[in-house]
Known about the structure:
- This protein is an alpha/beta fold.
- Among the domains are: 114-165, Oligo-1,6-glucosidase, Domain 2 (Oligo-1,6-glucosidase, domain 2), CATH 3.90.400; 468-556, Sandwich (Immunoglobulin-like), CATH 2.60.40.1180.
- It has 18 helices and 23 strands.
- The longest helix has 16 residues, at 180-195.
Amino acid sequence: MSAKATSDVWWKNAVVYCLDVETFLDSDGDGCGDLKGLTDRLDYLAGLGVSCLWLMPFYPSNDRDDGYDITDFYGIDGRLGTPGDFAEMIRTASDRGIRVVADLVVNHTSDQHPWFQAARSDRDSPYRDFYVWSDDPPDNPPAPTFPDQETSVWTFDEQAGQYYLHRFYRHQPDLNVTNPKLRDEIVKMMGFWLQLGMSGFRVDAVPFLLETLGVDAAEADSLPDPHTYLRELRAFVGRRTGDGILLGEVNLPFEQQTAFFGSDYGDELTMQFDFVGMQQLYLGLARGDARPLAAALTARPTPPDSCQWASFVRNHDELTLDKLSDDERREVFDAFGPDPSMQVFGRGLARRLPPMMGGDERRVRMIYSLLFALPGTPVLFYGEEIGMGEHPDVSGRQAVRTPMQWTPDESGGFSRGPADVFPAPVVTGVFGPGNVNVADQLNDPDSLLSFMQRLTRRYRSCPELGWGSCEVLSQPSSAVLALQTSWDDASVITLHNFADVAAEVRFRPTLPPGDVILTELASGSTIRPDRDGSVQLRLEPYDHSWLRVTDTSSREIT
């Protein structure tokens, strides 16, 4: 494949890093992270191996939902900087080989957005139909997304004289994407940010975006297929950038999720998060058993060539477990969040990985090795590379959205300003900056940060993980996940032990003819398969191994 062709699909082997500008680094001491602070740390991200930066909302908002209640799709939150600061950040990121994508939040706005203010004030307003209204909401509406905060997805607005739809909070009225004029506005806004140098968008809550909830049946039958809209957005991004992406949040079962890639041609979302695999991973971790994740990987559909799965361990939301059965969810709760204060909405956990694993760094390293070994594109949440924890006194999903920890001082080097104006409190205790910070780990070859730097380099040396086909290898230990991923003449085998006991593993990979050895990529040691092509090795508790298949009779497979 030509260099031009591979560059057009740069996301196949990307390392994606998600951050919230306001909690990353404060450059001017006002207590809020900003774009200048982010720009100052782009060299750090490049050194980590990040090739794609995903920014959580940085637009003006009413700040009632961590920036997801947007009041201006074309602006920069004044606390975070200016359009000039944004342009400088984009330029610097590009110089470091880092692409930038941002949240596309167009299934709702803030109730303070000028569109909604105009819509509620006059039934004849051209913005009235930008939202979903009803005189009499349906008798059996879907449950609110945040059941502890809202009792209904419909709220009566006195000024408008009608009910409006909101699948999330009542201060976030849903947009009516069946309206062609609204669709034009969304495309115009996307074009604006692409013109400023962005490489695409992470599309928020995609299934909600495409719903026609509140549209009566007769009208719904006359509307075009909602997936047509996703195809239009993908085509628009392609025309404007040539290689831009849409990374979709689609938390659905696999059989429903595949439709969002594009049923025939892979012409809708470029990538989708593998929520099913993530949840089965945690079930397996709770049991010390790799089989739940193995089953999920086996069942996971192969996306079209123009699409990709994105794998993750944690993100900025709760660790959702909604696709597990009630009993399975209880297993994960009991193992990793038994205190009700750690649980959110009855379906997830507001915790980061290291505290869930009891601070056992063997286990943490095994899990991140597995993240990078899974077929697809790995996505990191800021602070994962140093082992940050959550703040137990912060409620809900905000518990994991704490300031980045750069140095050992009380503020973690996040800001020179007073802590009482920080967007969130700094983590305290064993996972606080005194014990977990970038400065101490940067020059420590045994630190988690150094391990993650080596891991990203190893991932980059294995392009088949992004491009190839993956097979779960049969072997006797239920605690071990053995994968072989191959692409063209390249092949890598990865093994991960989910249990706290050692495992003897014997497996038979697919090998090329000739004199073959397996090279362990971390240590450089080699294993020669037996005469029958089988391989035997021992994995210590929570151990992991990456093996490069090498045909010594011809050349190394790279």
